[in-house]
Amino acid sequence: MSFWKNNIKIGAKEFPRFIGGPMDGVTDSPFRKLVREFSKDELLYTEMRHTSCIAHDKGVTRSLDFGQDERPLNFQLTTNSIDHIKPAIEKALAIGIDAVDLNIGCPAKNVVKSGSGSLLMSDVPFLEKILKEFRRNLQIPFTVKMRAGFKHKNAIEVAKLVQDCGADALTIHPRLQTERFAGVPDYDLAALVKKTLNIPIIFSGEIVDWSSAKRTYEQTGADGFMVSRGLYGAPWRLKELKLKSLDEPFVVDNKLILFCAIKHLENLLDYFGEHGIYCFRKHLPHYIKGIPGAAQLRKKLIVSDSVAEVKEGLLSFLG
């Protein structure tokens, strides 16, 4: 129990052990604001962005558009060049963030094709230059998110390099790039990384509820637990995990789901304007999944252009 009561220390800062991970098109500013309705102190990650995009950002992509009420916030970057690291970090620091994360684990084909993400694990000498450039330009916590490897497992070698280059914490998703999100994560590899390093280790992969989080800790000894896909349609998840880890109850009922669905839609409308209703379409199925009659409601509301109709449909279904 004492383990779960204590925070994870990353550099000079401390955070609760459950962390909100980055998911492109999901964990945007409107969603992070919703998570903050339940979890005020947990570390959240921004969506991953390329250093060149941030360095040349003129406000079009809104990558640097987030509220201070979303903090503590870890700004996640990836890169394929040394050149844009410093200006990208400077722009992020100017707005106010709590940490910077380098993603060397993203398996997406377009990211890999650009020479970024998990491909960086296949070129250790180049990765070393990137890590040192990140550390050189940061006085706040610097973290790294990696995989088991690119085409073959070299997580131990890369993890040691990450620590040697001054990172304050390491997140591992113990699957190869070729596995993407299929199969069982290599818990033994994650446990070995934990035993090898002195910096905190955060585990990422298949943490969707308290039983999976508890099992992950027992199998790996990880210091922190990143929740990503477990947040789909469940912005309360970090609070739920925290309370259950302390053996305290947390009830998910239709009232809670309705509040979150409506609030999420409103946040999207505030942020994206009238386009917000279209952004909500990908989230709606997750809020009603598993409830009898959900399929019929989804078919009706997923094509609606009316905010009032969507709200009324959710109210009649969940109210």
Describe this structure in words.
With 319 residues, the protein is an alpha/beta fold. The chain has 15 helices and 11 strands. The longest helix has 19 residues. The chain is globular and about 55 Å long. The strands form 2 sheets. Strands 3, 4, 5, 6, 7, 8, 9, 10 and 11 form a 9-stranded parallel sheet that branches. Strands 1-2 form a two-stranded antiparallel ribbon. Helix content is 42%, strand content 15%.
Instruction: Give me the Rg, rounded.
Output: 20 Å
* Biggest sheet details: 9 strands, parallel
Helix-strand makeup class:
alpha/beta
Share of helical residues: 40-55%
Instruction: Give the rounded overall mean pLDDT.
Output: 95
Spans of 5+ residues with little confidence (pLDDT < 50)?
none
Count of alpha/pi helices: 15
Distance, first to last CA: 37 Å
Question: Which band does the percent of strand residues land in?
Answer: 15-25%
List the helices and strands and how they pair.
Blueprint: H1 2-5, E1 8-10, E2 13-15, E3 18-20, H2 29-35, E4 44-45, E5 49-50, H3 51-55, E6 73-78, H4 85-95, E7 99-104, H5 109-113, H6 124-136, E8 142-149, H7 155-164, E9 169-176, H8 187-196, E10 201-204, H9 210-220, E11 224-227, H10 237-245, H11 254-272, H12 276-280, H13 284-288, H14 294-301, H15 307-318
Helix pairs in contact: 2-11, 7-8, 11-15
Task: Please sum up the structure shown.
With 319 residues, the protein is an alpha/beta fold. The chain has helices at residues 2-5, 29-35, 51-55, 85-95, 109-113, 124-136, 155-164, 187-196, 210-220, 237-245, 254-272, 276-280, 284-288, 294-301, 307-318, and strands at residues 8-10, 13-15, 18-20, 44-45, 49-50, 73-78, 99-104, 142-149, 169-176, 201-204, 224-227.
